[in-house]
Amino acid sequence: MFAGDYGIATYDKNYYLNTGSSKQQMSELEKLTSTFIHYYERNLSIPYGEAITYIETAPTSKYDTWYFVAYPSIVAMTREDGFTNTQASWFKAFIAHELAHYYFGTYKKFNSELGDMFTESLAEYLSIKATKDLLGKDAYLDRVTNKLNELKEVELPAISSIKSGSEYVDRELYVYVYAPVIWLAVEKEIGSEKCCYG
Ligand SMILES: [Zn+2]
User: 15-48, pLDDT tens digit by residue?
Assistant: First the structure.
């Protein structure tokens, strides 16, 4: 629940709570949102869920910023512009990742010890695929190269050896960086058709 006295707007079928966005900004975010959603629907052959609610609020601390999704809400806790960076590549990657959580986290819920890893890494994997097909090869190579650089000279346990979330060594690195790269490698091995991408 998001309570208080704040501005509410709707654009197309999505909601904007306290985002302070102009019509132009909502139109740009709408375009980004629907492009990714249509891409996921097309490739996974599963219709997307309900409309998205974008929520913006200030964090209690002065300098921190935190974005997260609690489907169907995507929340920006920030003192800067939360949803107006629609041209920035980090923002596009973020929206692609959060929207992918409809499929991994809502439509499909994982209940095992490794559920968190599957939920985050598969959403990230989908967002990387969307980056490649919608935003272009350079943006894709940028994201993959950044991940590979982060994995240089670190030793992480193999997925098959992990019995609980506490064994990741570094959770952020494991679920957002390492595991998505593994899914890309698996796709290379078995072919994109078997990963729902033709
Ligand atoms: Zn996520």
Answer: 999 998 899 999 999 999 999 999 999 999 999 9
This prediction's pTM: 0.91
Which amino acid type is present at position 10?
T
d(CA 28, CA 183): 31
129 CA to centre of ligand 1 in angstroms = 15
- From the CA of 171, how far away is ligand 1's center (Å)? 12
Quote the ligand 1 centre to 117 CA distance (angstroms).
Answer: 10
CB 156 within 8 A of CB 173: yes
Cα of 95 vs centre of ligand 1, distance in Å, is: 10
* Closest listed residue to residue 98, CA positions, set 131, 65, 120: 120
**pLDDT score, position 128:** 97
What are the residue ranges spanned by the domains of the chain? 8-84, 115-195
